[in-house]
Amino acid sequence: MTARPPTFPTSTVLGYPRIGPNRELKRALESYWDGRSTYQDLQGTGRRLREETWRRLDGLGLGALPSGTFSFYDQMLDTAVLLGAVPDRYRGGTDEEAYFAMARGAEGVTPLRMTKWFDTNYHYIVPEIGPDTSFRLDAAKPLSEVREAREHGLETRPVLIGPVTFLLLSQAAPSAPAEFAPLDRLADVLGVYEELLRELAAEGVEWVQLDEPALVTDRTSAELDAVRAAYGRLGSLPERPALFVASYFGDLGDALPALAATPVEAIGLDLVAGGLPGLYAATPGRPTDEAARPGEIPGKLLGKLLAGKTVVAGVVSGRDVWRTDQERALAALLALRDQAGPAAHVVVSTSCSLLHVPYDLDLEPGLDPDVRRRLAFADQKIAEVVELAALLAAAPAGQGTTPTGQGTTPAATRTAGPAPRPALEHASGHTLQPAPVRSPYAVRAAAQAEHLRLPPLPVTTIGSFPQTGELREARARLAAGELDEAAYDDLVRAEIARAVALQEGLGLDVLVHGEPERNDMVQYFAEHLDGFAVTRNGWVQSYGSRCTRPPILFGDVRRPEPITVRWARHAQSLTDKPVKGMLTGPVTIVAWSFVRDDIPLRDVVFQVADAIGDEVRDLEAAGVRVIQVDEPALRELMPLRREDQGAYLEWAVAAYRRATSGAGDHTQIHTHLCYSDADQIVGAIDALDADVTTIESARSGARILDEEAIGDFERGLGPGVYDIHSPRVPSTWEIEVALKAALRVLPADRVWVNPDCGLKTRTYEQVEAALTNLVAAARHLRGDQPS
Ligand SMILES: CN1c2c(nc(N)[nH]c2=O)NC[C@@H]1CNc1ccc(C(=O)N[C@@H](CCC(=O)N[C@@H](CCC(=O)N[C@@H](CCC(=O)O)C(=O)O)C(=O)O)C(=O)O)cc1
Ligand SMILES: N[C@@H](CCS)C(=O)O
Ligand SMILES: [Zn+2]
């Protein structure tokens, strides 16, 4: 690096959505996977989307444009490829075959694990690193994107996952010794980053963004040493672009001084989720006059830390859809500029990548104008960034006092959601009443055994059956007014009958209705609850080609009428076997929505819990004997810092119990969790007090079944034995092996046999084959028949 780094333009974003404003990438990927188009076609779509994105950002007036934020599947997977960390079992075919085999599995090879990206509903592919992984630079993607942008006359900043986060989020290869951790390979990985930086410098790239979100979670002193070592080494490379290390989803804490002491030229701070203590005394829910906590940096030291650095200030939230409170955001920027001192340069940015919000509010003309005027999607947020940068540039120095005049500025730069309607139960304290207590588990288990008369190792599924094109199309026609409600209902009833008949025929023990009436397990409930708005095109990528339209929770939540009861009644009328009532839990509904932030999150969740509790009671009254209340996001909503986690788990569990504890002893309550590192929260899962918990474990190496993790968990458990995210059909033998692992730590009367998540993304052909094997494995282990 030369003595003076290039000036960073005054505005930027950390990343942008990539699925396409009309989900063009989703369609291109699925068409390629189905063999309806070629890899060249897919690449063409990628090129068009990247060009459109750069032109869009440039057109909106953004100063510095990112590249490399595009991906055909996931940015962690891209980084594994960049570093040559492709496990041998995926090699042998073309590069794209290896890439998609790691993501989705292929004939004879299971995919890499997939898990949640911090506390978001985005899921990443977990790279596998062992002591023998041979790293080798494959810089094709970052280089070609820089060149591609230049063809359109645009200069970009390559965005990459940083080496420390890459290794901290990777998993040890199965063959690695127990004491091995991927971070042990830091020195080798840094060698590849050095080579990459040299190549980018030779290409004339001025700035590179290295994302290090793992630094906003608790880190050991050894890990902080790794940060110092990594950026000390990369920073001292003579020929390299200027380095911008981005953090997001929280505050850097002790990692800030560690990073600031290295030669990196720019540091990105999330001033919405994190804020700088001392500078931003009031993160949401934190009193403005609170003293710095241990490990926090008082504002006055900030200037010393950041002297000579560029500070990329994330003041526009990349995680919600509310418009930014411009006055507060500007006050935050001014305070930062003053406290960081004249030797620092402040750049306005988003708090994280805009990957987590929909593209453009203009694509959503149907929203209620009262809600709409408070909203900003990705493009509106970019306009906010640009405007704030202009305001900051125009403001004279020395303005960094707050509206309260205390010399500190609140970090909450977002507006509260739309003003809620006159408060109902919330204000009266009703929502905070304790939930009724169910009888002890043993009492309930006896009542349920009598009521349900299930065999040992009962076979069930998680809820959804394949969502056929016919159903999706019918829903689209219903929304467009081209199909009437009655015709749509008939179609849904027929689909329920199909799912029930299939399960009966295959011999499952607890059936489901298949959820054909639902577009999504969260959006469907939001559409039937007061207090939510839903979008027509507000798609956000969840993983690979899969997207959701997170509902917008803007007011007080109420259930005007029963939601699922008529479908549950219909399904149960078709069979004598128990059919599970199927609901989404309060934590998950809130986690996968954009939520109001004018009342504490806990109170929002409690309102939703009460609505779901009403539904539980109505299902039971309708004769439903088993009710599943899914909480796949229980772990996801957990605060990233350990000190905040206990309080969260306490209220999250309380909310779940509010929703479910109205059920009588004979009603069996199930819950389901996926992608959740469930082994880390077994205590909380136990505290949910559900009679049966089905859980993702097929793709996480069944860590929940580790004797230490499972501890004295004393209820029913269904460790997922079939990875539904892969088109692969598991063999009976594989399923038996997985079940035997469960039977080593749990008695047979508490082990359930089920896939690891819903089947909506699979085809009927795959489902029928997989469920046939599931039933065969259970029967064989019960001793009913030979395998
Ligand atoms: C279980 N998971 C979920 C998460 N979050 C949720 N909100 N929901 C979940 O189920 N997080 C963790 C996991 C994994 N994540 C996902 C996320 C998304 C999917 C998925 O399958 N998404 C579908 C879209 C679902 C949907 O909303 N469908 C609608 C609209 C369908 C559609 O595209 N219609 C067409 C027109 C119809 C046609 O002609 O085909 C259109 O609008 O253009 C519906 O069914 O009505 C996806 O395809 O991405 C799975 C797991
Ligand atoms: N009941 C839902 C849970 C997904 S996490 C389903 O089966 O799709
Ligand atoms: Zn699931």
UniProtKB/TrEMBL annotation:
The active site is at 725 (proton donor). L-homocysteine binds at residues 462-464, 515, 630. It catalyses: 5-methyltetrahydropteroyltri-L-glutamate + L-homocysteine = tetrahydropteroyltri-L-glutamate + L-methionine. Keywords: Amino-acid biosynthesis, Metal-binding, Methionine biosynthesis, Methyltransferase, Repeat, Transferase, Zinc. It holds the Pfam family Meth_synt_1. Residues 397-435 are annotated as: Disordered. L-methionine binds at residues 462-464, 515, 630. Zn(2+) binds at residues 672, 674, 696, 757. Binds 1 zinc ion per subunit. 5-methyltetrahydropteroyltri-L-glutamate binds at residues 23-26, 116, 121, 546-547, 592, 636. The keyword Cytoplasm does not apply. One of its GO terms (biological process) is methionine biosynthetic process. Its cofactor is Zn(2+). Residues 457-779 form the Cobalamin-independent methionine synthase MetE C-terminal/archaeal domain. Its EC number is 2.1.1.14. GO terms for molecular function: 5-methyltetrahydropteroyltriglutamate-homocysteine S-methyltransferase activity; zinc ion binding. Residues 397-418 have a biased composition (Low complexity). The keyword Transferase applies. Pathway: Amino-acid biosynthesis; L-methionine biosynthesis via de novo pathway; L-methionine from L-homocysteine (MetE route): step 1/1. Residues 11-339 form the Cobalamin-independent methionine synthase MetE N-terminal domain. Belongs to the vitamin-B12 independent methionine synthase family. This is 5-methyltetrahydropteroyltriglutamate--homocysteine methyltransferase. It comes from Planotetraspora kaengkrachanensis. The gene is metE.
